Structures are given as structure tokens and as C-alpha cells.
Amino acid sequence: MMRTILFLSMVAMAGCGADKRKPDPGPVADVPVLPTLDAISIDAGATTLDLAETQVLSAVGHMSDGTTQAVEAAWSSSDEFVLRVGGAAASTTLVSCFKEGEADVTATFEGHSATVTITVTWEIPADPGVVYATPLTGGTYLPTGGLIYDITIFEYAPDGTRTPVATASGYGNASVLSRDRSTLYLQGASTPDGGTTWNAFIDKYDFQSGTFSRVVDLPAGVSGWAMDIDSKGRLLTKSANTGTAWRIDPVAATVETLGSMWGVDENGDPIGGMGLTGIAVGPDDNAYAVEEMSALYQPAIVKLDTTTGIGGVWANTPRGVMSYYGMVLLTGVTMDRKGTACFAECFAPRVWRAQDVNGNGDALDVGEVALFGTLPTGPLIEYVTDLGWRPMGYIYPMALARGGSVLVSVEPSSYDETTWFGQATPIANPGIYWLTDRDRNGTCDVGEVTRYSSEWSQNTIDNQCMQARR
Fold first, then answer.
1. Are 133 and 466 in contact (CB under 8 A)?
2. Which residue, among 331, 330, 321, 302, has the nearest Cα to 397 in the 3D structure?
3. How far apart are the C-alpha atoms of 381 and 390, rounded to whole Å?
4. What CATH number should be reported for the domain whose range is 38-47+62-121?
5. DSSP assigned state of 30
6. pLDDT in tens, 128-180
7. Cα-flanking dihedrals φ and ψ of residue 5, to 5°?
8. Does domain 131-468 have CATH number 2.120.10.80?
9. CA 200, CA 192: separation in Å to the nearest integer?
């Protein structure tokens, strides 16, 4: 027994002394060290911008190995009344300027931030810049109201010449430039069955590629034939008949119903009016439109709060507008980034401005609507015995241009000896006029109303077939 125990003890001791080392795996490969983010900066380009300009800023990450790369930063502005930035986190953002002053733009990413100061100035423009218009030919009536046409996109130059850019069919009376000015959005309609059914849509024309492409097919009932664009690049349109406004995101291809621009009654039904013409987006991203048929001291401009969906009257027609068979016929609306709106009379060579001077949310108070400028065309309407009033010309397209200036197109009447009205007397100096308040006294005085081009933008229906680079 003792010999057995001794033997087992010796075996155990031998086992404990065995070599348990693993084989040498050889040299270990170097593990690469990934660069880390040391800081970010903002590539701003110009840091002094005109009131009418936009600017693209880029966020740049500086890595520990000395390289740089784009980073998707969160952007913010220290004063959104001066300038705004795009809301989504991205490597770039678009700065839109709204009033004179300074504001800091900050980019933040993974605990790092960078700031650049942008100064916004107001420069008196030497000219309105390049103007685009889509004169209409060959109209087709829609069963739901309105017309579609063959159009030609023309580029108007400050020397008075115009050059055709592209021609297309099936479009209406609305166009608007994208915020970066690379694209012209157009409303249109097509019929799959020869005229019984009409499908409305929004297309875009890309100036660089020279091609048209579909942005979104609009739901039934959405056919506003007027468009403007907000600070986030979304399109706003409205129905002339119902006053309903919609917002279209051209990137997401979505359509959102915003509400009635006229407002609603106690039952929630649209109040209604006598037709709306044109649409303008203010610096608050709210929508403004003009009453096409109004009366003295009655609504001239209605406003829709795009956040709450509440609409209502924003400005009334002033004393001095022309009454046509008891009606005041208005056309066109623009609004600059200071919140000043301009609208015109259809059959009188006058442009009016409206501004919420006291900051109470509307321009309904005394002195808040005033004459902005008179066009040197002479009368646009004449009285004919046994016929009554006969239009000699029209103001229809209006557009916002550089520095908050305004473009107005005046076209001669189409009445001739073949029509019931007979041959209208030709008006003096038709064409596109440029109004700019150079001395900033609130009106366009001598030398501040100039004839930009003798070629007008033929429209005769709505006011939004002319666009300028703002």
C-alpha cells in the first residue's frame, strides 16, 4: 500500500513539472491606428453677402493624420431674422439672408464646433440680373378651370434682348427658380384620354443638362397655377377658386395641404372670395396671395400661416385704385425678405406696396399700403361708346429681383377688329419694367422705374410665369 502511494506521488510530481508553454506564434502584425477627429472648420467662401444672396457653407473635419473630410454637422444661426441655415444635419448648408446685420453660423459635430460670422449688407443693384419667363402659346382649357400651353423658356438680358432656352408642351402659368438658381420648376397637366381626365404635376428644367424631368404628380384637385419657394426650398401653390394652399417638397416628392388662405367660418368651411392670383412666400415662410377681384377698401392681400393653417386678410385695397365696373382688379404679388409686399392693378399702370409697419401681424392700418411706382405706359383701359370699358393692355407677370426690386410685365391687349370689343388702342411702351427703390424712401421716384425689356412675357391669365435671380 505504501509503495502504491509513493508511486502515485512520484507520477503527480512528474506531471506538475511538465512544460506547458504554447508554441511561438511568430511575429505579431502591426494593427493600423485609425485617425481621430481633432477639430472641424467651416468653408464659408464669402462672409459678406448681399440681402438678396444665398451662400453654401461646408463643414470640414480635420483628422489626426493631417487629412480632411466632409462631416455631417448640425447647423444653427445666432439670429434667424438676419439669416437662416438649412435645418437638417448635412455636410453643407444653404444660408439665406433676410435683413441687414451680422449673425454667427455654427456647425457642430461629435463634440466639436466651428463658427463663422456672416455680414449681410444691402447693395443697390445695377440691374435685376438675368430674368426667365415662359410666354404662352396654344392654350387648352382644363375642365376644372385654367389653361395649359406650349411654352418657351426665354432668358432676358439687361440689354433688352431675349434668347430662347427650351421649349415644351403641357405647362401652365406657374414657374419658380430653385434656391440655388440651377432649376426652374414648372406646373403642368397632361390628359391620358384626350381631355376628359387631367393629371396635374410639377416638372423641373435643369439649366446645366438642358433637360426636363418629373418632380411630383399632384393629387386630384391640386392645380394652383402659381408657385413660390420658401427658405427650405419647398414649393407653395394655391387654388385660385377655393383658396386652398399646398406645400410641395421637391426632394421628398410629397404634397401637404396647409389650409384656406381666406380662412374658415365657425363650421370650418372656407370663407371664400372672388379668386386669388399669384402667391408669394414671406420671410416668415408664410404664404401671401392677391384677391383678383376686389373693391375699394376690401381685401387686397390674404395671408396663410403655414404653421397653424389659419388664413385671413392681411391688407386692403387703398384709396386711389381704379374701379372697373365697381370692381378693383388686382394682379401679381411679390414679397421681399424685409416683409414688404408689392401688388399691381390689372388695368392701371400702378404698383402698390404693403408693409406691416407697426408689427401687429398685418398691413391693415393707416399708411401701411401706399403707391410704390407708376409705369410710363399711359392708360391701360379706354371707354368706348356703346361698348363700355375696353382693355388696352394688362399687367400680369410680376417677379421679385435683386435687392428686393420688382419686375412687372405689361402686355398689349389682344383685342382686334375680329373681336366683339374691336381694335384696342395700342398702349405706349409695353414690355418688362424694373422698379427699384434706390434711395430707400419707400417709393420709386424719377429714375427708379426703368424699362428693362421691350419684350413682355405674354401671359394673360396669372402672374407667375416670370422669374428673376433674387
1. yes
2. 331
3. 6
4. 2.60.40
5. P
6. 878 888 766 656 655 555 556 677 888 888 777 888 898 887 776 678 888 77
7. -65, -40
8. yes
9. 11
